[in-house]
Amino acid sequence: MKAFMDKDFLLETEMAQKLYHEYAAKMPILDYHCHINPQEIAEDRKFENITQVWLGGDHYKWRQMRSNGVEEKYITGDASDREKFQKWAETLEKAIGNPLYHWSHLELQRYFGYYGALNGETAEEVWNLCNAKLQEDGMSARNLIRQSNVTLVCTTDDPVDSLEWHEKIAADESFEVQVLPAWRPDKAMNLEKPDYLDYLKKLEEVSEVKIDSFAALIQALKVRMDYFAARGCSVSDHGLEYVMYAPASAEEIEAIFAKRLRGENVSRQDELQFKTAYMVALGREYHKKNWVMQLHYGVKRDNNSAIFRKLGPDAGIDCINNYAPSSEMADYLNALASTDELPKTILYSLNPTDNAAIGTIIGCFQSEETRGKIQQGSAWWFNDNKQGMIDQMVSLANLGLLGNFIGMLTDSRSFLSYTRHEYFRRIVCNLIGGWVENGEYPADEKVLGRMVQDISYNNAVRYFGFEL
Which fold has domain 46-139? Predict the structure, then answer.
């Protein structure tokens, strides 16, 4: 029996161990998609206790605590931080087979030097150890990023954001890690939302463009894109129900938008046509600016209305949506490719059954512009586990070129989540090592070592074109 999460955790073969320890482990981290608050980096926040780091905004953990019958008071309510931590520890011991069990213990090992198992009985010991460690200067937000060997972070930012914290970080020569904004313009697209017109007023103010037409909306967004680009942004991200394609004439789109500006409701078909025009217009602009376009889809959000009314979005009440017609996504990409305006694009679906569809679609739109111009993104959200990562990479290997894969992203609000990259790298090395062990690929250490280093870091640096 192997020891619990020892140095060869998840590494089942000699080749896997060699690839991880001698090649992947030493690579830096490029965190090209996360939800960290840039203000906390600018102010170099120090955390009072482990609950603030672990449970403050982690809806992954909230879901599991609810599954364990924990009262909401101890999850997002007014219970003390110590009480909340106890409830999490009691939940975690039951989470066998869940990635949260591995992530939590990797974080305890790497940042706090704790190699035991967190459960209800050890909670007091771990609470005291972690809280004492968090008082050290090396555990501030910036130093956590440093000790994780991160070279660049892309946050997630709305077009109306001032980016003031990014400017402060960039002007501070004492912090060597780049922190760049990433463009997330979902609110400008979701015209069906009841607060849409209120949002447009904010966009008008910051862009100084009167939004009285669809053309004006796109112009206002272009103004803000220039603002973001001047502050280092070269990455966009869209959260979509699915990648739709319902084309309409310019006149029809203007009529739909005018209807919404008058405060009238729009039909589902109106919504799909508007969003199609919106995504085509922005896709063209990304191509002009050489920005990367990320499309996250396949999710149905905010399913529990009672919790949503109380806590709002990102409360742990989202699920997989199994409606995502691959034909429409192909048509959307083709609408941009047919005029040579398709940007570098990364596709992520929350539904693992979409892996093969994505793998076949990306092969239709590759070009000599860059290796792996159209990417299947890493296993996302509910798929961000051992089996989900294996399934995504096996599918990509079967249908594309795994060697060009841009690898892992953190997709987290926590400064301790960088161990997810270690988890991913161990799984990559074990997968590749297994193929070698099985005689499916030569035991060429030089080629294999370069491949896992590329997947871990180098491919993303090349793909995004960041200057590091």
Answer: uronate isomerase, domain 2, chain A (1.10.2020)
Residue 87 structure tokens: 């409830």
Whole-Å CA distances, 24 to 16, 231, 451, 459? 10, 31, 9, 13
- pLDDT tens per residue, range 293-317: 999 999 999 999 999 999 999 999 9
Q: Tens digit of pLDDT for each residue in 121-174?
A: 999 999 999 999 999 999 999 999 999 999 999 999 999 999 999 999 999 999
Residue type, 251: E
Cross-strand pairs, 294: 237, 346
Domain-wise residue ranges, the chain: 14-44+141-464, 46-139
Alpha carbons 244 and 169: distance in angstroms, whole number: 37
CA distance 418 to 403: 22
Alpha carbon distance 418, 144 (integer Å): 9
Distance between CA atoms of residues 381 and 299, nearest Å:
10
Q: What's residue 57's pLDDT?
A: 86
Neighbours of 378 (CB within 10 A): 24
pLDDT tens per residue across span 182-222: 999 999 999 999 999 999 999 999 999 999 999 999 999 99
Read off the pLDDT of residues 9-48 as tens digits, 9 standing for 90 and up.
999 999 999 999 999 999 999 999 999 999 999 999 999 9
Tell me the residue ranges of DSSP E strands in 206-272.
235-239
Q: d(Cα 7, Cα 275) in Å, to the nearest integer?
A: 48
> Which residues touch 216 (CB under 8 Å, ≥6 apart)?
209, 210
Element (H, E) at 30: strand 29-31
Query: What architecture is the 14-44+141-464 domain classified under in CATH?
Result: Alpha-Beta Barrel (3.20)
Determine the Cα–Cα distance for residues 25 and 410; give it in Å rounded to an integer.
16
